[in-house]
């Protein structure tokens, strides 16, 4: 859940919105909804194809967004926690109950338990070989995604807030200003087709940007002031683990994330909440 700002514009370049199916997730969001950090997004969602007019999605499922930016929800949920941002962990060393993190030239720890919430391929590379669920991590399949953030020269007169696109290059176009509590400046967020992203993951970003702009013009005539591309190497979950989380009690290591259940914001929450409940039971049982 991420938002990039530029002067008077804002681009939600991670998760575009989320839905609520599970009562546990619904209850957890109650305070955020009351505080206004989560609101309903009522913009029209359509389907687009190269040889047909836009058709309404027909879905009645409410769509939600963080306000004033997508990361407002994790910020609200992490209030009171010591969250360190922009920190790269290069290695995990030690043993159960005495785990250490290598952060630059510093060694942080010891920690009783370590939990990785990184995408499955990165968790597999980071977690020690003794983690008993390495095989499960290796079975997860994730797709890449390129996100194009476009600032048009003029207001776009298009009859939808967002569109799912049947196209070999792109599969999502969104007028970000249609979301609540966003700046009124016209902003387009465009996501790539996941298969195309996997195929082109290591191509130069300026080439990717040009290809995606060409794809947009098949559906929307556009002149733009700026267009910025972002590469997500692990974005969409194609094949999840199939269980809520991975817990190795003997090694005191664990992993969780949307890739355990499926590529949805709610899945990430349920995975983390389920692991948290399991760890609480283990810790309380040991006291």
Could you characterize the architecture of this molecule?
This protein has 287 residues and is an alpha+beta fold. It has a domain of 166 residues: Polyamine Oxidase, Chain A, domain 2. Helix content is 26%, strand content 33%. It is built from eight helices and 17 strands. A seven-stranded mixed sheet has the order 5-4-12-13-14-11-15. Strands 7-8-9 form a three-stranded antiparallel sheet, with no helix packed on it.
Question: How would you summarize what this structure contains?
Answer:
This protein has 287 residues and is of the alpha+beta class.
Task: Outline the secondary-structure elements.
Elements: E1 4-6, E2 9-11, H1 23-35, E3 38-41, E4 45-49, E5 52-56, E6 63-66, H2 72-77, E7 89-95, E8 98-103, E9 106-111, E10 114-116, H3 120-126, H4 134-139, E11 141-152, E12 162-166, E13 170-175, E14 188-192, H5 194-199, H6 205-216, E15 224-239, E16 246-248, E17 253-255, H7 258-261, H8 265-286
Parallel strand pairs: 4-12, 10-17
Antiparallel strand pairs: 1-2, 3-6, 4-5, 7-8, 8-9, 11-14, 11-15, 12-13, 13-14, 16-17
Shape: globular
Strand order of the largest sheet: 5-4-12-13-14-11-15
Total helices: the number is 8
CATH topology of the domain at 3-76 and 144-235: Polyamine Oxidase, Chain A, domain 2
Overall number of strands: 17
Overall CATH class of the domain at 3-76 and 144-235: Alpha Beta
Strand content: 25-35%
> What is the succession of H and E elements?
EEHEEEEHEEEEHHEEEEHHEEEHH
Q: Assign the CATH architecture of the domain at 3-76 and 144-235.
A: Alpha-Beta Complex
Q: Would you identify the regions where 5 or more consecutive residues have pLDDT less than 50?
A: none
Helix proportion range: 25-40%
Our Rg estimate from Cα atoms comes to 21 Å
């Amino acid at each position: 859940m991420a938002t990039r700002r530029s002067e008077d514009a804002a681009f939600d370049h991670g998760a575009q919105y989320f839905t609520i199916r599970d009562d546990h997730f619904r209850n957890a969001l109650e305070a955020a909804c009351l505080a206004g950090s989560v609101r309903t997004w009522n913009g029209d969602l359509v389907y687009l194809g190269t040889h047909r007019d836009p058709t309404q999605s027909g879905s009645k499922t409410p769509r939600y967004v963080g306000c004033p930016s997508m990361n407002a929800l994790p910020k609200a949920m992490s209030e009171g926690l010591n969250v360190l941002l922009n920190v790269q962990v290069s290695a995990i060393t030690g043993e159960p109950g005495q785990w250490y993190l290598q952060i630059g030239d510093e060694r942080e720890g010891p920690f009783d338990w370590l939990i990785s919430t990184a995408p499955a391929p990165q968790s597999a590379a980071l977690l020690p070989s003794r983690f008993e669920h390495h095989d499960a991590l290796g079975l997860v399949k994730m797709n890449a995604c390129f996100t194009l953030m476009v600032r048009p020269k003029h207001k776009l007169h298009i009859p939808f807030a967002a569109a799912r696109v049947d196209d070999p290059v792109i599969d999502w176009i969104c007028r970000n200003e249609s979301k609540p509590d966003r700046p009124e400046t016209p902003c387009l967020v465009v996501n790539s087709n996941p298969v195309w992203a996997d195929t082109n993951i290591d191509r130069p970003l300026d080439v990717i940007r040009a290809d995606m702009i060409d794809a947009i013009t098949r559906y929307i005539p556009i002149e733009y002031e700026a267009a910025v591309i972002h590469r997500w190497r692990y974005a969409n979950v194609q094949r999840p683990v199939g269980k809520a989380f991975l817990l190795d009690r003997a090694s005191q290591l664990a992993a969780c994330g949307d890739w355990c259940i499926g590529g949805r914001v709610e899945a990430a929450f349920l995975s983390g909440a389920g692991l948290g409940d399991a760890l609480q039971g283990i810790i309380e049982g040991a006291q």
